[in-house]
Each structure stands twice: as structure tokens, then as C-alpha cells.
Amino acid sequence: MSNWNKKSRVVVMAVIIVLLLLFLHFIKILRPIENLAVSATKSIISSGYFVSNYINSHYLQFQEKTEIIEENEKIKAELVQLLSEKSTWQEEKEENTFLREQLNFVKENPYEYEIANIIGRNIDQLQNTIIIDKGDRHGLEIGQPVLTNAGLLIGKIIKTEKNRSFVLFINDDFSKVAAKIHNQDKTMGLIEGEFGLGMKMKLIPQTEKIDKGDMVVTSGLEQGVPKGLVIGQVESVHNQPEELFQQATISSFIDFNKITIVNIIKNQIIEDANQDN
User: Fold this and answer.
1) Residue 138's pLDDT band (cuts 50, 70, 90)
2) pTM of the predicted protein model
3) At 28, which helix (H) or strand (E)?
4) Rounded to whole angstroms, what are the CA distances from 159 to 45, 119, 126, 131, 147?
């Protein structure tokens, strides 16, 4: 009972105090004390409000930045995908165009040929060569001519392995190709490269008349290299009266740095003897 009485007295006292405070509040006796309490807590409440707004603002900015970064990463991924698809489409388009040109070329010329992709280029700068993805097992041999774009000669095979071969460009200074000019004299000569920068046709008799723009093709005097493969055209003629021969600068129709696919002539197809009879 004593405990219950104590609790009852505490409750009654608490109620009386609350009622007294309310009464004093209404008759404004506590106004000075209340004003003092408000003044004391105002700065604390203001600081808490500022801190709350600061944290909320920076959290929202952080969230927005995070969303922007995620969106940018998503856009970048989509862009990479589109560029990859465009690159694949462009490569397939170039390959299809090349194959159509080679098909037309082969229809007009009875050759056995092999299509190959370029998989590397020389890095020692000693020779202007490329590496292709076909070799001995595909019937490739040293000396076979290598073409691009409807019969344009770009070089010859100088080394073969089981699954790859090395091609020396005709503009390399170690390259030599027997050629002729499509002019009235059907001028014969020898095409030599100039350190990967161009080509010169040498051993041209002084009596032969050569004009700028004349077409230059293979002469057919080399084993394994058929006649009529386009090399380029005459860009300029160098004729010195005291020299035994004149020479011509030959320009190619292609950019050797942009070649990705090539066509190798392996053999000339011999028609059946019964058809000849």
C-alpha cells in the first residue's frame, strides 16, 4: 500500500505542477522565463535546421551526380556498341565490294586465285612488306603476284610458311617487275621501287616516246606473273640525251597503307585439251 500511495502522490503532484504551469502560462507570469528559453534554444534549432538542409542538399546533389555518371556510362557503352557495329558493317561492306571486283576480274581472266587478309606489316622498316593469312597449305608460292581492286598489282610473295606468307610491295627498293607501257611503241622496261615512296620504270630506250598518263602493266616476261596486270600510270619522264636509257616515274592508283584484303594469282587455268580441238 505504501508504494501505491507514493506513486499516487507523484502522479497527483505531477498533474498539479502541469496545471499550475498552464495557469501561470495563461496569466503570462511565465512569459519572461519562456522568452529566455526560446532565445536559448533558437540558435540550436537554427543550427540544426541549417545542418539538416546542408546534408539534404548535398545528398541530393550526390544522388544527382551519381545518376548522371551512371547515365553517361550507359550512353558511352551504347556508343561503343554502335561504333563496333558500324565498324563491322564497314568491314563487311569493303570485303563484299572487294569480292565482287575480284569475281568480275576472274571471270575475265582465267586464273586460279586465293583471297587473303592482311594480318600484319613489317616493323623493322628494312622492307616494305605485309603478312597475309594464307600460306603453303593454301598453295601459295614465292614469286606469285598479289593484287587488289580489280587486278591492280601491289607486290609479290617473297616468303611462305604453313599458314601465312610475306608480300613485298612493288614500291619497295628491293622489288623489280617486268613491265610495259600501253603506247604506240609498246615500250618495255623494268619497274623498281623507291624505298616505299614510289616507283621508277628504267631501261627504257631513248627512241621510245612516252607521255604522261600512259598506262603501265606487267609485260608477262616473268615466270608466274601474267601480262596485263595494272601497275599504275606514267607521272613524269626523265630523258637525258647523254644517257643510254630514259626512265619514267610511275604512280599507283592505290594507297598501300589502306589495303586490308588481297588476291593472289596462283596459276593460270588451262582449258581442257578437248575444247581446244
Assistant:
1) very high
2) 0.60
3) none
4) 87, 15, 15, 10, 16
